[in-house]
């Protein structure tokens, strides 16, 4: 039996509608949520992602401020821009699009963002709160995965989750979220990576398998256990002359063979990706609500 497809686009749409309603309620209290996106340079993929965030903000009733900086600027100028946004009372969330030019230190930039406006959830203060189980801004993709599973009716508590990938953006914070002692978590978590011996033996034991390796079709059929729930975080471009843009997007999972063994699976595109932006909007409205409540 083919796996049930988890409709991330549909679930993200529901969350964005909830965000729109919340933003409208705040606007009635004369508080308009504001998100500033800072793009340094002209990386095409980053520019496309920023535009999609701006469109999502507009539909959700969130004020979007687009700041474009030349790739050649000094790091000090970027830090100054971030500091100005920290002090701006109309801005509730600050997102500096990564990657940055090679002469800049991403960690120094993240440290400059006010943790109260860190809607990406990458500031060490917010990551520390995540690890200690406090409420904070969670990184958008890991949090999106948690919410996606919950709304798709997947029980996480007591299940064995295997994550392939240990990045600071997905793997590590997702593991921390899943092992928390709270609703929607309480999982037993295994984190695998490029140095894991006998990788397939670990992944086949997963009740829920999360692929975040950053490599096309990295998770093959033999790595998926019968009836597992498969979450594909990967986004990889593959040349396709028949596609309108000359390429198509595929994930980190060899989709068709994996879907034949899994009970549920997320597609690429239309799975985890839409959830990331939905959670960013949710974090921004939450920050605006904090401002409204003083």
Structure characteristics:
six-stranded parallel sheet; 10 helices; 294 residues; globular; 40% helix; three-stranded parallel sheet; 11 strands; alpha/beta; 16% strand
What features would you describe in this structure?
- The longest helix has 21 residues.
- The chain contains ten helices and eleven strands.
- It has a six-stranded parallel beta sheet with strand order 1-11-8-7-5-6. A three-stranded parallel beta sheet has the order 3-2-4, with helices on both faces. Strands 9-10 form a two-stranded antiparallel sheet.
- Helix 7 links the parallel strand 5 and strand 6.
- The model has no long low-confidence stretch (mean pLDDT 96).
- 42% of the residues are buried.
- It is an alpha/beta fold.
- Helix 6 packs across helix 10.
